[in-house]
Amino acid sequence: MTSLYHYPLDPFCRRIRLSAGEYKQELELIEEKPWQARAEFLQLNPIGAVPVLVNDDVVAAGIEAVAGYIEDHRPQDMPSQIGNGDKERAEVRRLTSWFDTKFHHEVSAPLLVEKVIRRFVSPEAGGGAPNMNVVRQSLDMIRPHLEYIGALTEDRNWLAGNEISTADFAAAAHLSIVDYLGDVPWSENEKAKAWYQRIKSRPTFRTLLGDKVTGMPASRTYVDLDF
Amino acid sequence: MTSLYHYPLDPFCRRIRLSAGEYKQELELIEEKPWQARAEFLQLNPIGAVPVLVNDDVVAAGIEAVAGYIEDHRPQDMPSQIGNGDKERAEVRRLTSWFDTKFHHEVSAPLLVEKVIRRFVSPEAGGGAPNMNVVRQSLDMIRPHLEYIGALTEDRNWLAGNEISTADFAAAAHLSIVDYLGDVPWSENEKAKAWYQRIKSRPTFRTLLGDKVTGMPASRTYVDLDF
């Protein structure tokens, strides 16, 4: 059995759950709160981040190692989630990184820290009420990303081309965190909303819709396919 | 002909030059100063970062896309730089990311900004004298990374295992920037120094040793193999 140490609201873990689900790879989910810095977890990943995948004596620590493992083990009868051909693969990788670095840095990481993690850590470790300046800045940054998603889907089925790819899984994973918090202004971009509706309707997305964080219910429309 | 838009002191471009060199892939180097945000360059990569690889109608923009392209085109008679087998590949990817994210964030990115880029941009864009607090903090962070490199090579030939890998190229690329600036305290860790000496002696490293930045000569020992 392959296990995934994950935190439900971590966007990288969600990207992996979507990728693995689409490849029909089963993962046993083990919840880990990375900010607790458990000694046993630091043995698996000295950098202390989720996701970490464990299969017998293989430990893949961090998003790059886990995503690489998932791709290395893809069923040979399914198309690669990185796409086919140089052009498509370059575009998938560029856009996956766009969401995993730019969107993460500008939106999902600061919102996750301010609105979620600060609730669960001690005041000495930076816990407490969210810094509303940081929250407002991050919320402002969502809009141009929605516009970019909308523009990309104008002449493509999915973000990086005509097939669904890790770019879609990364984008949806990061946005789904913001959506859990109820902070995505969906009404402002119909095309981006239509893309999200399509990916949210996939069976693999259901596992994310069932995620619950104690004391932090999801936004009213988080589980609705018609939001 | 495959072209690489690069900046000589950018660690991600250096990682690609090492990887491509070891795979015997020729790249025509085109110098790009990403902070100038040239319109033609932003057409190639809207995020504005180097490296960008161009081959006919293929544009691979950003480190993930370029590294993926190089790996996808590796000569089939050479071993993969990501290693063989799940364990080794997980370790290569974990450590490549260690240097490309952690070391970059803590050391090479702030030093590059403070000591190099601020010289070349206008005061309105943040140019001027380096912020010495930031410089000092970054320099302090080098030591634990050298210790980690030293510890990794205690029972391995190279950082991630017995074969040279992208983990070595990433680590050497980032450290080589700091070395160009003369800021690596090599004498403090003999094992890390011995590892760097070995990678610096490889023919593919020579192209990096010839890099020159106008008005910023390399440190006295930057080109010496016996430093």
Largest sheet of chain A: 4 strands, mixed
Tell me the total number of β-strands of chain A: 4
Give the helix proportion of chain A (percent range): 40-55%
Overall shape of chain A: globular
Tell me the radius of gyration of chain A: 17 Å
Strand content of chain A: 5-15%
Identify the notable features of this structure and list them briefly.
homodimer, 227 residues, alpha+beta, four-stranded mixed beta sheet
Provide a concise account of the structure shown.
Chain A is built from 8 helices and 4 strands. Chain A has 227 residues and is an alpha+beta fold.
Describe this structure in words.
The structure is a homodimer of 227-residue chains. In chain A, 50% of the residues lie in helices and 7% in strands. The first copy, chain A, has 227 residues and is an alpha+beta fold. The first copy, chain A, has a 4-stranded mixed sheet with strand order 2-1-3-4. In chain A, strand 3 and strand 4 (58-61) form a beta hairpin. In chain A, helix 1 (11-22) crosses helix 6 (166-180) and helix 4 (86-120) packs parallel to helix 6 (166-180). The longest helix of chain A has 35 residues, at 86-120. Chain A starts with a strand and ends in an 18-residue tail after the last helix. The mean pLDDT of chain A is 96. The interface between A and B is medium-sized, with 27 and 27 residues.
Topology:
Two copies of one chain form a homodimer.
Chain A: E1 3-6, H1 11-22, E2 28-31, H2 39-44, E3 52-55, E4 58-61, H3 63-72, H4 86-120, H5 132-152, H6 166-180, H7 190-200, H8 206-209
Parallel strand pairs in A: 1-2
Antiparallel strand pairs in A: 1-3, 3-4
